[in-house]
């Protein structure tokens, strides 16, 4: 299969990419690295990417985590900015990409544990992830030509624990292998509309 | 208790308002009717409302349903417009209202069944509702001064079935009383961070 990985150079992407490379042709895309440059917060950039990489069987997006927020002073403006990349960016990948992927291709998006288990300071992340879960349920019954879509909802990745663990006391890191396996499962198995919670 | 009901003149509001009036002081607000005019898609309008109605113990928002959408041609621009009122409007009610409600007051928002059970043509509604669910989980642990927050997720209201039932074949209408009881429960019981699914 020909697989496009957006965010291949991130914490999870670094482990996922070599594993998938064993059996598939990988094209990497990212804001600052990869075979192709893409800014997922821009529709124009997403379109340009899909025009460039033709005949894709799978598109995996491992989006970056969002910023922390302060609920007592949070505004719509800040929230909208925080939702721009990870929520609307990933939705746009699907809305635009549905015209480009090969028949029976698949999308794999990335949400996060805060959709279901709240922590302080991550309201924007929670909204993004909850929205993505419901989006994937809807998209799964809307997509045509046999296209599939799933979302991986990671807990705190083991490789992020040193940097972010102190912000989320009690949140147990999940192994990189478990995360990588979840993404790989969405490629290898004929599933759609699934939320793969890895925590 | 002094309860502010936004959307008191809508399908559910019409039944809820008289029931709550038996034991509480009700102030109604709406875009085109009610004691106070408010446009929940406007931060300015929400602020003006809270400045006007002081010492509120509860704020219930029974937002209107969103428009239908066509997934194959859906764009970020259309989606953003669809999310403006029901998602950002309700979030803004909480972000702004947290400064105005009485101690131990409560918010009750309205999502919908499409967060969990997808139908075609309602991707925007699904995203809105999924996002609201996760927002409420987060807000429940963020709100100060004993403030509570819950969300009612209605299926198709019995009184809407004649107008909208044909759009969602197989979606069984839920009784108005069950819906009204769910909203009332959020007022009377000391619960927070709950998603009350009524379907």
Give the topology, please:
The structure is a homodimer of 199-residue chains.
Chain A: E1 2-6, H1 13-21, E2 25-30, E3 36-37, H2 43-52, E4 58-61, H3 76-97, E5 106-110, H4 123-142, E6 148-154, H5 161-164, H6 176-188, E7 194-198
Parallel strand pairs in A: 1-2, 1-4, 2-3, 4-5, 5-6, 6-7
Helix pairs in contact in A: 1-6, 2-3, 3-4
Question: In brief, what are we looking at here?
Answer:
The structure is a homodimer of 199-residue chains. With 199 residues, chain A is of the alpha/beta class.
Mean pLDDT of chain A: 96
Outline the biggest β-sheet of chain A: 7 strands, parallel
Biggest interface reads: A-B, 41 and 41 residues
Could you state the CATH homologous superfamily of chain A? NAD(P)-binding Rossmann-like Domain
> What would you report as the Rg of chain A, rounded to the nearest angstrom?
16 Å
- Proportion of helical residues of chain A: 25-40%
CATH topology of chain A: Rossmann fold
Structural class of chain A: alpha/beta
Q: Estimate the global geometry of chain A from the Cα principal axes.
A: globular
Tell me the number of structural domains of chain A: 1
CATH class of chain A: Alpha Beta
**Multimeric state of these chains?**
homodimer
Q: Which sequence of SSEs, written as H and E, runs from N to C of chain A?
A: EHEEHEHEHEHHE
Please give the count of helices of chain A.
Answer: 6
- Give, in spatial order, the strands making up the sheet with the most strands of chain A: 3-2-1-4-5-6-7
Into which percentage range does the β-strand content of chain A fall?
A: 15-25%
- Kindly state the number of beta strands of chain A: 7
Given as residue ranges, the uncertain stretches of chain A (5+ residues, pLDDT < 50) are: none
């Amino acid at each position: 299969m020909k697989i496009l990985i957006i965010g291949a150079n991130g914490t999870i992407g670094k482990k996922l990419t070599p594993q998938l490379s064993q059996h598939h042709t990988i094209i990497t895309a990212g804001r600052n690295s990869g075979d192709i440059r893409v800014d997922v917060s821009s529709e124009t950039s997403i379109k340009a990417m899909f025009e460039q990489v033709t005949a894709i069987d799978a598109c995996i997006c491992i989006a970056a985590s969002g910023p922390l927020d302060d609920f007592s002073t949070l505004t719509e403006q800040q929230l909208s900015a925080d939702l721009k990349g990870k929520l609307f960016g990933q939705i746009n990948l699907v809305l635009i990409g549905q015209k480009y992927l090969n028949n029976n291709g698949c999308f794999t998006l990335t949400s996060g544990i805060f959709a279901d288990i709240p922590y302080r300071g991550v309201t924007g992340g929670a909204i993004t992830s909850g929205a993505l879960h419901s989006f994937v349920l809807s998209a799964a019954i809307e997509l045509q030509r046999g296209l599939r879509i799933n979302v991986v909802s990671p807990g705190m990745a083991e490789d992020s624990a040193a940097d972010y663990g102190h912000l989320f006391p009690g949140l147990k890191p999940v192994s990189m292998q478990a995360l990588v396996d979840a993404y790989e499962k969405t490629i290898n198995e004929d599933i759609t509309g699934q939320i793969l919670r890895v925590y």
